[in-house]
Specification:
CATH topology of the largest domain: BirA Bifunctional Protein, domain 2
CATH superfamily of the largest domain: Bira Bifunctional Protein, Domain 2
Strand order of the largest sheet: 6-10-11-20-19-18-15-14
Largest sheet: 8 strands, mixed
Number of helices: 14
Shape: elongated
Distance between the termini: 26 Å
Number of strands: 20
Strand content: 25-35%
Length: 484
């Protein structure tokens, strides 16, 4: 039987319910408890009301055994026509797997010991016109799983666990920061200039103000304005957007944690990062050793450190004083860059990072000593102005976090912004953020800033290979028209 025939049969049952003056989509739901609560506090003969979706139906004459699921678990239902009565029995005949019900009755154990609800009454809350995918065996088509995530959640318990875990991870992050005096804030998602990080923005237009706007690449410059305003410890769990490539680690819309602490520096951010991630891991998994794609990640501190400057000198002969053209030539000699007149420093940085990433350890590793030329918002080291006080954290072979001692010298920041504009790629719209510089001129305290990719952290803690597996609705290509 194809899906259209199934749907027609279910619509016929819906019409039969209407003929009996039964609303298949009532506005109210009776007071109820979760399945988990019913099972956890199980008492023989206790009367409870539960709500959930029917996921199985096993008929035995005038008795049916059904499975009812909610977000917390599954319970068996025992439905006997003699108990529910003729009127309800007639309604029961119009039910299907996937229908959503409210059921009331008494808890008992079957002779096999299964905890069960003896149904005495039920109410239809939503009649499903389509069946569950593949008779509850789960979706196999990966593209369909992402495109119809609601079916993926219904049919794959492991998928549901990932997103429940994601919620717990974010909750643990908030709890950790709140307990340390950080204030959660919200900053604009639409910016009048594209700034705060390297990346190609999404562009939109505001009709009333007749102005171009950009979806934020990062909230950094607004959060640091709050440091100027006297909010010494702030964080934002933010949605950011980059109009760039898609991969197992990149989605155009993604979630970041950004944290800023006044009177601190990047060494303080090292400590904060270790403490935060270890706290979250222990809170949601109870472990310091995590399985990830066939390997084991050891979170015991202190974490390893490697020098970016040392690595690129050893592998490519690149040194911090090299001009972009020199860096390009050295990369080309290693077959890591295509012939081109010039590459921006950010592009060179990405080529180097990609080349290094495969060699990075599985365990958390701080990559330090980034070239100042690649860090326009970071302070330089006292003993070497060519090197910045910045780190990136890698774990499981991917970048998880980025942090530095924030540059708070407004004149030096202006010089770096102007240099960025002068060196921008042709066609790349770069401009100096005058409003941010105005804020800096009023005095920003020394500070440490930290960004953590929430999606990648969830990948790590939930042992997921792709960022699409930890985002409920990842961006996908538009489906082709039927018959095209």
């Amino acid at each position: 039987m194809d899906i259209n025939e199934i749907r027609e049969q279910r619509i016929a049952k819906l019409e039969a319910l209407k003929a009996k003056n039964v609303s298949a989509y009532p506005a109210e739901t009776a007071s109820h408890i979760t399945v988990a609560k019913a099972l956890e506090g199980f008492e023989e003969g206790k009367k409870v009301t539960l709500c959930g979706r029917v996921t199985a139906n096993r008929g035995h004459g005038k008795v049916n055994f059904m499975d009812l699921r909610d977000v917390t678990g599954r319970i068996q239902l025992y439905v006997k026509r003699d108990i529910i009565g003729e009127e309800k029995a007639a309604i029961f005949e119009q039910l299907d797997i996937a229908d959503i019900l409210s059921v009331s009755g008494e808890l008992f154990k079957t002779h096999t010991g299964e905890l069960t609800l003896k149904v005495q009454d039920f109410t239809v809350l939503a009649k499903a016109l389509r069946p569950l995918p593949e008779k509850w065996h789960g979706l196999k088509d990966v593209e369909l799983r992402y495109r119809q995530r609601y079916l993926d959640l219904l049919s794959n318990e492991e998928v549901k666990k990932v997103f429940l875990m994601r919620a717990k991870i974010i909750q643990a992050i908030r709890g950790f920061l709140d307990a340390r005096g950080f204030l959660e804030v919200e900053t604009p998602m639409m910016h009048d200039i594209a700034g705060g990080a390297a990346g190609r923005p999404f562009k939109t237009f505001h009709n009333e103000y007749s102005m171009d706007l950009f979806l934020r690449i990062a909230p950094e410059l607004y959060l640091k304005r709050l440091l100027v305003g006297g909010l010494d410890r702030v964080y934002e769990i933010n949605r950011s957007f980059r109009n760039e490539g898609v991969s197992t680690r990149h989605n155009p819309e993604f979630t970041m944690l950004e944290v800023y602490q006044a009177y601190a520096g990047y060494e303080d951010m090292v400590t904060l990062t270790q403490d935060l991630i270890c706290h979250v891991a222990k809170t949601v998994t109870g472990k310091e050793e995590l399985p990830y794609q066939g390997k084991v990640i050891d979170l015991k501190t202190p974490w390893n450190r490697q020098s970016f400057a040392g690595l690129v000198k050893e592998k490519f002969g690149i040194e911090p004083q090299d001009e972009p053209a020199v860096m390009l030539h050295k990369l080309q000699s290693k077959g890591l860059a295509k012939d081109k007149d010039r590459l921006s420093r950010s592009q060179i940085n990405k080529i180097v990072e990609d080349a290094l990433e495969e060699d990075l350890q599985v365990n958390p590793t701080f990559i330090t000593d980034y070239f100042t030329s690649l860090c326009p918002l970071a302070k330089v080291k006292k003993d070497n102005p060519l090197i910045s006080e910045r780190f990136e954290l890698y774990a499981g072979g991917m970048e998880i976090a980025n942090a530095y001692s924030e540059l708070n010298d407004p004149l030096e920041q202006r010089r770096r912004f102007e240099e960025e504009v002068a060196n921008a790629d042709p066609g790349e719209k770069k401009c100096v953020d005058e409003d941010y510089l105005l804020a800096l001129e009023h005095g920003m305290p020394p500070a440490g800033g930290l960004g953590i990719g929430i999606d990648r952290l969830v990948m790590l803690l939930c042992d997921q290979p792709s960022i699409r597996d930890v985002i409920l609705f990842p961006l996908l290509r538009a489906q082709e028209e039927q018959g095209a």
